[in-house]
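hey team, just a heads up i'm posting the complex here instead of the shared drive bc the drive is being weird again. everything in one block, sequence lines first with there labels, then the predicted structure for the whole assembly after. its two chains so it's a bit long, scroll down
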Amino acid sequence: MIVPSKNQKTYGVLHTENYFSFLGFCKKVNSDEIQKVDVYLDDVLIDTIIANKHLQKIEDIYELDGFGFSYDLHEKYVGQKSLISFRNHETQENLQNSPYVLIDKSNIGFNQYRFVHSLNNINIPQLENLFMKNSISIMFDEQTVEEKYFCDYIKDLCKRFPTVKINFITFYKKDGKLIKTIFSDYLQQIDTISPDSIYELARQTEIFLYTHINHMNLYYTLLKYSNEIICLDIRFRRNIIKDYDNEAQNHEIFINPLKYNLSNEEIKKYEHSFTRIVFERAYHKIIDTTYSINTTTDGIEFYFFERINLVLKNLDLKHFVIKNFFKKLRS
Amino acid sequence: MSKTNELEEIQQTLQQIFLANLTFFKQTNKNLYEKLVAFEKLNIENYSIEFIDNRFELINIKNKTTFYNKDPFIDAKNRINTFEFSNAFSLIKLEPYEKRNHYENEINAYLYINDFINNFANTSTEINKFIFIGTLLGVHINDFHDSINAKSYLIIEPNIEIFRLSMFMTDYTTLTKSAKLFFAIAENEFNFQKIVNDFLEYQEEYNNLIHYELSNETNKTIIDKLSLQFTQSSQMRYPFSEYLISLKRGFKYFLESKNKIINLSKNYDFLEKKKVLFLGAGVSLARNIEWLYTNQNKFVIVASSAVLKHLQILDIVPDIIILIDGQKDCMLDQFNIKKPIYENSTILCSIKIDEDLYEIIKDSNVFFMQNSLELFRNFGFLSGVTVGDIGTDILLRLGANELYLLGVDASLDSKTGKTHIGTHSSSRKINLNTSSNSINFQNNIIYVKGNLQEEVPTFMEYTEMIEHLSAKLELLDKSYKIYNLSDGAYFKNTTPLKIENLPLENSADIDKIMLKDFLFSSLKQINKQQLNSLDIKEIQKERKILKKLSSFNNIEDFFTNFKNLEKTISYSIVINILDTYFKLILPYYTFLKNKQDANEILTSQLNKILNDFNSIYDKISNKI
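-- predicted structure starts here --
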């Protein structure tokens, strides 16, 4: 047997980010020579990648300066029960934690993992114009749904917007049963959906209600790429509109107003009110100047209902707010 | 009476009080008395008591500043009237503990404390222990006592001259008749800590809320100093339940394991004249993992279990693994690695280790070490703060006289604020730029002397480990060469050495197979295979003690019995563990106002602990 000298030894570790996305590193001992990594699916070579990235997570764990790689399994392989291996291109040695058994459709969490995976590589042109008029989507979350105020809110939405459809996004059948039980009086309006990708979700959504930090990635993805879906954060309940404004005092809109096509005069005109700058200004620009927001009035009423009312009724206003505010947040 | 006569009379009175105090200190506090006499001989006068505007004033002679600006007797009354109950050091928790260091199906100290905290709706408002931080002229001290009637007082004054002046105005002899007094006057750090400790050890059951009065702002830093010492001396840092675990698991492993327990009470030469490299879980190890891979055969590699995952990256197999922690999940995680990394190693582990972990490693060469208590007398036991200092201690006892430390950082990484190597489950990044005003033993960052840098950031908790290790290394003679290769904290009596300056070209490779056999046969020579007559006698003694303690009608009965046994028996594991239980629990017990509730909780806990002891000793007795 030929044992490589200690200086020729290569090594590396594979980490699974989610079930179809991988991170890792590959390196030669006492050398900065960049290594290649072969990716095999059931012993068939499907890719060769270069381990030359600076990945914070990998560098933090292994005290490396570079030598990282990331890999997203192509959509066409998702769903097959296969063994994926990452091997050093030169030595054909498996990296630590490789091979790895991919999950297939029989796995209970498969739909959810596939959906999460679809957030990794967004085809922007495919996503940006997809939407479904009068559809509100909410990621199902057991904890939130158990809150009485939340259930009452959804029921109230159904009453106030009888032509609107409300989709709970869930990947587990048991959640569907729970939703049907809780909202048994509104089954005509409330539905559950299990999208296999963000595109599928976008096809069924006009407003995405952001309810829990766990769904931040999805929220920001829609925020960043969609021209048609408006994302409204309803995580916080405040008494009056001014309370929301106070918490938004250090918002980027005040630090870098130019980015939001906003002048200092306008900030003054709307009295430094975040709510007024985003919505009243949009109304004035798109519809007419008669509309005004009283910031001492009910915060829940505005943030949980009136915002929805404004964007559902006025397509141009929705586009203006998305273009001039929401899309800028992540640019 | 004329003004002059009046003043003379006052002076006479002050003189009498002073002399009475001096005599009192001569008889009761030699250290303080000698300090006062020595100070008088120096003829220093920076402060004076003046009688102006019909009142006394303490004056700084040099800058003419005054301390009171009002009649000190009125000041005393004001202090009492405005005293806030919240001016207290809390030596107990007031909110229930979250899950911590939990042992499933075992007695857990934090849950025992929570039993009391959950009844804190009605707590005692008595002030039993009190601290005067600074005396000024001390006029308020007796007034405070009249008001609060505490059982003991710690009187702190960093300035001996001010304290001496207080001896003219304050009759300490009266105070001592109805309370125990502790004086920390112009003490150095070491003596200060000792006196505070004596104060804590006196009537420990009242170490719950200790109130204080701050004489003036100049002494404010003493509050932080006391806070830190109270935190460091907390019984929760190593509570009684940890000893119970050691006892229970220790006997189990003694009965079940192949190699049993090694004698650590002596020094051996097994590792003499060998280059021994001890690996800790500091960031320095991760930075030098390739160097370690390249040179692994030049050393006897000793790994703390926390680094195994990192060694796995390059398939580095340690010759010795040291395993100390008794926790389950984090330790199982450390062994969530390929078997070849540990199956051929010599594993030295604490008798406290988790039972599921034991199942994983039991087929390797496992030798046990007594931890924090001696199941078997004269067999030595581990003591220390972290695996870093404990591991070094073990290696020194096994004869390592050329020892290299890598990853024994005892610090945060000075650039990134990382606490451990990234593969360690506790690894996190600390923001080194944040400062905190409050003392938090586990999170506060302080800077200590660095090994390869001038200074490095570390947690207060680690400073104790640094001191512990330094104290151990300081005692070594010149035949020991300890090289610290880590970019972390400096330890006394070690040689800081950059890894690139370590010449290894001429070092021969070690035959690891021979080494393994040698270690095995050497350790076999010092392990206890069976119980001897002394062990059996000790076990029988403990059983007798348990029998005497187990039947009690009420708590008072129990304490009488316990104190009698404590006085008459020189060494008993049961008594020692119960003593640590009381040290932890009684401050909570006395804090509850409703004594019936408190007695019920205490009785129930005592019964559980005694049952636990009984079942442990029944099992071992059955094997005699």
